[in-house]
Amino acid sequence: xxxxxxxxxxxxxxxxxxxxxxxxxxxxxxxxxxxxxxxxxxxxxxxxxxxxxxxxxxxxxxxxxxxxxxxxxxxxxxxxxxxxxxxxxxxxxxxxxxxxxxxxxxxxxxxxxxxxxxxxxxxxxxxxxxxxxxxxxxxxxxxxxxxxxxxxxxxxxxxxxxxxxxxxxxxxxxxxxxxxxxxxxxxxxxxxxxxxxxxxxxxxxxxxxxxxxxxxxxxxxxxxxxxxxxxxxxxxxxxxxxxxxxxxxxxxxxxxxxxxxxxxxxxxxxxxxxxxxxxxxxxxxxxxxxxxxxxxxxxxxxxxxxxxxxxxxxxxxxxx
Length: 320
Hints:
The chain is an all-alpha fold. It has one domain (2-315). Helix content is 69%, strand content 0%. It has helices at 2-11, 16-37, 47-56, 68-86, 103-124, 127-162, 171-181, 191-205, 216-219, 229-254, 266-288, 294-301, 304-317. It is globular and about 60 Å long. The N and C termini lie far apart (48 Å). It comes from Caloramator quimbayensis. InterPro entries: ComplexI_Subunit1, NADH_UbQ_OxRdtase_su1/FPO, NADH_UbQ_OxRdtase_su1_CS. The chain crosses the membrane at residues 6-29, 71-91, 97-119, 140-162, 239-256, 268-288, 300-319. It is found in: Membrane. It is a multi-pass membrane protein.
């Protein structure tokens, strides 16, 4: 029975199937919101499902110069890492492995999809992929610094009450702190880190206008230029899963608590509403932000989001 329980966690909830449907729906909502903000009708919300299953039915063409096994395995490795992350992040205040939910482990796992994109692109043998790989590396260097500092601020704030004043990297303790003291967002010292994370999410996900690695118009989707069929479908699915995973992590870090207290399923309602708020915010950033060049990406993220994260960390360390 224990094995069946863990298989259910991995493949159904909060694992693959739950992430699959939630991620693709959020990707469709995101595209629809951005289209409306730009005064377009936009695709239907279910369009990501249509695109995914269409790619699953297409022929997979592997270049002669490609390292075939690596070319196929790279997107699958990214998918496995994202599903694994979902097992650690609380969903409706439940996580499959809550006792060992460590932020440091999640940070390591979050880098795997980006690394899989780099490895997959490098195995294709395309010059466009080479340009995209270098851009993806710049992107990683850009958003990792403000992300880590913001997580330090959250860990320090939670640790002051539930970890004897020491920084905590346990998601369960971060949720426990917010259950006692209210969501992090309601503490004014955490507002700068909250804003910094809002800018980190679209860059980490790789959505427009932060998609410098794929940049369809400039370098023909870079690392993905040689991909088709099943592997390309997995990469597109990884993009949708990242939207859901980062939104879930963001809600856990800043918007956890006791729920609305209005109806029986208040925890689930709160979670869904918070996810929608995050998607709206990220979509707004996408709609109003001009496309960043490679050199602008590093300068922007090491200036504004990093400064906001550091400000929160200083305020928390001073006990404010």
